[in-house]
C-alpha cells in the first residue's frame, strides 16, 4: 500500500478543540478560528429532525429520493439544471469532497490560499496538491493562466492532474471570483481536461443579491461538480449534511458510478433522520429563506465591523463580499511585529494572539500560503452570543454590532490590536505564560 | 497520485437497492441479502434522538465526552479496560474501519470469507488484501498458521502487511472462533508485529450467554483495536453510529493521533444529535438490555428455522452461534444445479434465486471466496414483518416462527428450495424473465 504521506489534524477543528480546553481551564477566549456558525437551529427544522427520529434504515447510498429531488430543485432555482439521479448526498460536504478526490483519481490543483481540508484530504490519498495562486481580490479560483502553466508543468514532470477545486464564494478570503475569471477558469479546465470541483457551501451567504457568485457549472456544465450543504446556511454543522450535483454528461455519469461506489464503502448513507430534515430545508420554505437572509445580514454586519478594527491598525484587507470571514494581512506591520514581538510568521502571530490574549485565529499557512505570510483568517461566526437567547436576538437585531455582547467582542479585538501594534518592547511574561 | 485500484459498490447495499427496485416494480421479493435489522427503533431511544435535535455543533472530532465515556464503560462491563481518551466515535463502524486502514497504513490480512467491505475499502486505498483461510466452523479469524505463512510470504515479496482484521462473531458465517484460536491469532500478530482490528459489531448477538466471543484485546491488549456500534444491537443502521476502542499502549496512542487526524479530514465528527442518543444507549439501561436480548432471541429463532430449510434440501451448514446469518453450502448439489439449471458458481446461483424467485441472497464471492464456491450468505433480519406492528409483535413473541408473516417467508424459502433441487429441466422462461 502506498504510505499516506501525512495525517494532520484539521487546523480549524484542532484550533477549536484547543480553544475549548483553554475555556475549560478558566481562560477568557475569543473563538475566531473555525467557521462554525454560532446560531441556534431554526425551530421548524429542529422539529423536522425530531419527527424523523424513528427512521432507521440505510436507504439508498446516494441519499433518499426526497432529499435528492429537493437538492436538485434548489439548484434549479439558482439557474442550474439538476437531475436527482445525479445528486449524491453525504454526511457533510467534507466527506463528499474526499470521496470526489478519490473517485476522480490523479492529482488535484488547488487555489492558494484555500480551505484547510482540500490539501489535507489529498495528503491522505498520497497526493501532493498543485497550488495555484488566485488573482488579487478574487480568492477561491486559481488564476487560469497560472493553472495552465502549473498543470502543463506537472504533466511534463510525470504527474497526472485530473481535477481543480474552486471555492465560490471563497473561504478564507470572503471574496468572490468575477464571472469572467470563472469563465476563463472553465476554458482552461476544458483545454486541460480537468474535472472542476466547485465548493459552493457559501453561495447563499453573498452580501449583495445583485452580484451573486457564478458557478463554473454555467460555463463548463459537462465537467463541473458542485457541492454544498446546510452547515453554513442553517448552522447545522454538527448534523453533517452535504450534497453534490454531478454533471449530466458522460464524465458526470461515470463519476457518479464511482462516487456512489466510494460512498457505499466508506459511509453507506447519510443519517436517515438528518436526511429527512435536510430534504425539507432544501425545499426552501419561506421561514428557511428568511432565516438564511437574517443570518447573512448578521454575518455581513459583524464581519464588516470586525474588518474595520483590523484596517484601523494598518492591516490590509480586500473588501469582503460574502461568508463570515476576513483575511487581514499584517505585512505593513512586519517590522513592528518583529521588533516588538519577535514575530516573523503568520503562525507566530496567531500563536501570540492566542497565548497573550486568548484570541483564536488561523494563520495563512493553514490555508496553504507560505509560512512567512502575515495573513490571518478571522471567522466572526462565533461572536453572536453565548446563549440561544443572545443568538436569536442577534439574528433579529437591525443593528447587531450594537448588542452589548457583540460590541464587547469587537471592543476586545480593538484593544488587543491596539496593544499588538503599540510601539513598545515585547512582554515576555505575557508571551511565555498567558 | 496512486490510482485507486478499483471502486465497487458495496455488495450488500447494491443488492438491497436492486431488491427495492424489483419491489417498486411490483415483484414479490424476499430480502435476505443485506444484514440490515428490520426492527423498529426502541421508543425511548427514538425519544432521546428527538430531544437532541437542537444540538448543532461539531464538538470533538473523536466524539462527545459523554459518548466516549459511555462506550468505555460498555467495554469495561465486558471485561475490557477502556480509556475514554482512547475511544474514537464515527458515523458508523464502517467509516471507522476505513479510517483505521488508512491510519495504520500498509497492507492488510483478511479472513476468507469476510464481510464485503473490508477488501473493498482496502481496494479504495490501493491495497490488495492478503486473504487467509479460516479454520472449519470458526469463521472471522484467519488460521494463525496460515497467517504466519501468508504474511511472511508477502513480506518476502516486498509487500508491507501491518494489520489483520478479525470478525467476532463472524459475518458471513454466523460462527465464533474459539478462544484458543483467538489466542493463537494474537500470538501470531505479536510475532508478526501486526495491529489486530477486531470488528465486534455482533458481540451482543451471541445466542448462548455461556459461550461469548472472546476479544483479541484480551490476549493482545497492546495491539488490538476493537470496533462496534449500535447498528446491529438496536437496529439503527440508518443513524450511522460506531465506536472504536484503541489500545492503551504506545501503538494505541500513536494510532489514536492518526485516526483522529483522518477523522477530522474526512467526516469532522459524528452527527451531534445521534451522538447524544448513542451515549444513552451505551450506558445500557434495563430497557436497552432487554430490547437487545429480545432481538437476539428473535434472530436465533428465525435464523435456526431458516437453517433447517436449507439443511433439509441437502445444503451443508455449520451450526450458527450468533448474528442473523447462515452460510449454507450447495456443494453437495453441484451436479444437480449444473444439470438442471446450468449453475456452476455462487453468483449464478444467487442470480437464479433472485431472477426466478425474487429471493435476494449474496454469493460467497462477495465475501472474498472463489467464484466456484456454491455458498450463499442468507440474512434473516429483514423477515420480521412489513410494519412496525408486525415487527414489534415478532420481538415480543415466544415463538416468532409461528407468526403468520414469518412463517410465510420460511414457507416461501422452503418452496423455492424444493423447486431448485427438484430433478427437472431448467425453466428458461422463468430464468430469462421473472
TrEMBL record, chains A, B:
The keyword Transferase applies. InterPro entries: Aminotransferase_I/II_large (IPR004839), AspAT/PAT-like (IPR050596), PyrdxlP-dep_Trfase (IPR015424), PyrdxlP-dep_Trfase_major (IPR015421), PyrdxlP-dep_Trfase_small (IPR015422). The keyword Phosphoprotein does not apply. Keywords: Aminotransferase, Pyridoxal phosphate, Transferase. Residues 29-380 form the Aminotransferase class I/classII large domain. It comes from the Bacteria. One of its GO terms (molecular function) is transaminase activity. It holds the Pfam family Aminotran_1_2. Its cofactor is pyridoxal 5'-phosphate. Belongs to the class-I pyridoxal-phosphate-dependent aminotransferase family. PANTHER family: ASPARTATE AMINOTRANSFERASE. This is Pyridoxal phosphate-dependent aminotransferase.
Amino acid at each position: 500500500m502506498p504510505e499516506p504521506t501525512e495525517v494532520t489534524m484539521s487546523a480549524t477543528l484542532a484550533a477549536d478543540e484547543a480553544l475549548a480546553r483553554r475555556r475549560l481551564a478558566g481562560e477568557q477566549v475569543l473563538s475566531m478560528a473555525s467557521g462554525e456558525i454560532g446560531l441556534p437551529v431554526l425551530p421548524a427544522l429542529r422539529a423536522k429532525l425530531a419527527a424523523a427520529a424513528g427512521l432507521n434504515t440505510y436507504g439508498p447510498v446516494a441519499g433518499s429520493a426526497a432529499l435528492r429531488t429537493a437538492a436538485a430543485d434548489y439548484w434549479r432555482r439558482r439557474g442550474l439544471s439538476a437531475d436527482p439521479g445525479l445528486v449524491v448526498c453525504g454526511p457533510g460536504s467534507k466527506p463528499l469532497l474526499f470521496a470526489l478526490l478519490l473517485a476522480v483519481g490523479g492529482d488535484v490543483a488547488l487555489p492558494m490560499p484555500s480551505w484547510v481540508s482540500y490539501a489535507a484530504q489529498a495528503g491522505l490519498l498520497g497526493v501532493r496538491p498543485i497550488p495555484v495562486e488566485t488573482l488579487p481580490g478574487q480568492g477561491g479560483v486559481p488564476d487560469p493562466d497560472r493553472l495552465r502553466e502549473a498543470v502543463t508543468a506537472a504533466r511534463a514532470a510525470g504527474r497526472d492532474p485530473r481535477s481543480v477545486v474552486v471555492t465560490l464564494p471563497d473561504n478564507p478570503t470572503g471574496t468572490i471570483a468575477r464571472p469572467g475569471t470563472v469563465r476563463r477558469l472553465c476554458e482552461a479546465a476544458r483545454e486541460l481536461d480537468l474535472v472542476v470541483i466547485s465548493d459552493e457551501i457559501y453561495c447563499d451567504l453573498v452580501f449583495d443579491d445583485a452580484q451573486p457568485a457564478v458557478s463554473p457549472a454555467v460555463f463548463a456544465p459537462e465537467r463541473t461538480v458542485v457541492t454544498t450543504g446546510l452547515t453554513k446556511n442553517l448552522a447545522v454543522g454538527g448534523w453533517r449534511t452535504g450534497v453534490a450535483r454531478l454533471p449530466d454528461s458522460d464524465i458526470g455519469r461515470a463519476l457518479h458510478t464511482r462516487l456512489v461506489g466510494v460512498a457505499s464503502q466508506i459511509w453507506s448513507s447519510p443519517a436517515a433522520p438528518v436526511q429527512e430534515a435536510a430534504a425539507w430545508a432544501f425545499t426552501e420554505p419561506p421561514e428557511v429563506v428568511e432565516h438564511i437572509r437574517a443570518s447573512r445580514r448578521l454575518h455581513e454586519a459583524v464581519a464588516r465591523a470586525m474588518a474595520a478594527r483590523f484596517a484601523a491598525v494598518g492591516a490590509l484587507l480586500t473588501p469582503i463580499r460574502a461568508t463570515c470571514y476576513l483575511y487581514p494581512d499584517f505585512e505593513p506591520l512586519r517590522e513592528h511585529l518583529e521588533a516588538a514581538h519577535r514575530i516573523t510568521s503568520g503562525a507566530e502571530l496567531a500563536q501570540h494572539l492566542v497565548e497573550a490574549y486568548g484570541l483564536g485565529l488561523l494563520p495563512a499557512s493553514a490555508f496553504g500560503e507560505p509560512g512567512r505570510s502575515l495573513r490571518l483568517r478571522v471567522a466572526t461566526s462565533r461572536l453572536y452570543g453565548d446563549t440561544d437567547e443572545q443568538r436569536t436576538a442577534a439574528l433579529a437585531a437591525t443593528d447587531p454590532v450594537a448588542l452589548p455582547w457583540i460590541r464587547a467582542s469587537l471592543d476586545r479585538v480593538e484593544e488587543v490590536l491596539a496593544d499588538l501594534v503599540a510601539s513598545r518592547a515585547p512582554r515576555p511574561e505575557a508571551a511565555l505564560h498567558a
